[in-house]
Each structure stands twice: as C-alpha cells, then as structure tokens.
Amino acid sequence: MYVILVYDISFEENGQKVLSKVFKICKKYLHHVQNSVFEGDLTEYQILALKAELNVHVRKNLDSIIIFKSRNKKWLDKELWGIQEDKTSNFL
Amino acid sequence: MYVILVYDISFEENGQKVLSKVFKICKKYLHHVQNSVFEGDLTEYQILALKAELNVHVRKNLDSIIIFKSRNKKWLDKELWGIQEDKTSNFL
C-alpha cells in the first residue's frame, strides 16, 4: 500500500514537543519529502503500527493528520517542483 | 484525475506574498484540506492551467510543490484524524 501522510500539528499546549515526536515516528516508517509530508510503501500491519504510535501523541482537538493510501504505487504519479527535502533532514 | 497538491513556500525574499498568491490559485482549482494541502478532481487541461498559474510565482530555488495524481479517485483511500480545515478558510 502506497501511503502519503500529511500533518498539521498545532503549536498550542506544548505543540513543539508533539511535533518533534510525530516527526520522528513518521520518519521511522516513511520518507520525509516536504515540510510536513511523508510518503512510502507500507504493509497494512505497518500502517496499523504507525497509527498506534501516532495516536499516543496526536491531539484530535488541535492537530490534523491525513493519510492517503493507494493500493499500488503505479496508480500514483508524482511531480515535484523546486527544492527537494534534504534526505538527511532529521528535523523539519 | 484525482490530485493532491502540497506546497512548502519559503518566507525568504517576500515569501509571504508568494504564499498568499499560491494559496489563492490553489483554492481556485482545489479543496483546501489542511495547512498547505489541497485536493480535488481535475481534468488534464485544468492541471496544466493550474501549473501555468503557479509557475509565475513559485521560486524553484526556494519553494517546493509536490503534485500527486491518481487516475481514479476510487484508487485512493483517505483517512483524516483530528480537526478538519474550515471549509470557509480563505487564508491559511
């Protein structure tokens, strides 16, 4: 399953700490391709594990996470303009 | 063609103005679903028109735009956690 994950973490109520945790969790499972955008090929089990980890930190009343899933990477074309995320970026 | 567009506009060199222009152009073609994330169903012609408009403002050395395209919306599942973008948001 090809996954695109985008998040918008509020800076309210210690949001910086949440942001750093969410970023690190996403980096474990997916490629960081833009500011708050990650993508990658995951199994259903990995998706469940990723969501379980995120669920501990994400505040449903403050933050937003969208996960797009395509059953096959071939069904998804991608076009990138401008600068690419630095592959070694460990923090956004 | 189902499109997901994400952008990361640098605040350098008058970036706030670029951001506002890019946001308004994207709003013309797509639904604003999260901070810098838009989605919607577009024809090939509309995608070309959107890109032509964005191309005037986006700085390839500073900004980043990623366009994911799925030939069919049915091939793309979407999951949303937390707060939804306010449908009437006219500025991020």
Automatic annotation (TrEMBL), chains A, B:
GO biological process, one term: defense response to virus
UniProt-recorded Gene Ontology molecular function terms: hydrolase activity; metal ion binding; RNA endonuclease activity
Keywords: Antiviral defense, Endonuclease, Hydrolase, Magnesium, Metal-binding, Nuclease
Binding residues annotated for Mg(2+), in chain numbering: D8
Leading EC class: hydrolase
Pfam family, one: CRISPR_Cas2
Its EC number(s): 3.1.-.-
Source domain of life: Bacteria
Cofactor field: Mg(2+)
Transmembrane domains' residue ranges: none
Similarity-based family: Belongs to the CRISPR-associated endoribonuclease Cas2 protein family.
Annotated function: CRISPR (clustered regularly interspaced short palindromic repeat), is an adaptive immune system that provides protection against mobile genetic elements (viruses, transposable elements and conjugative plasmids). CRISPR clusters contain sequences complementary to antecedent mobile elements and target invading nucleic acids. CRISPR clusters are transcribed and processed into CRISPR RNA (crRNA). Functions as a ssRNA-specific endoribonuclease. Involved in the integration of spacer DNA into the CRISPR cassette.
Subunit structure as annotated in this protein's UniProt entry: Homodimer, forms a heterotetramer with a Cas1 homodimer.
Protein name (record): CRISPR-associated endoribonuclease Cas2
Organism: Sedimentibacter saalensis
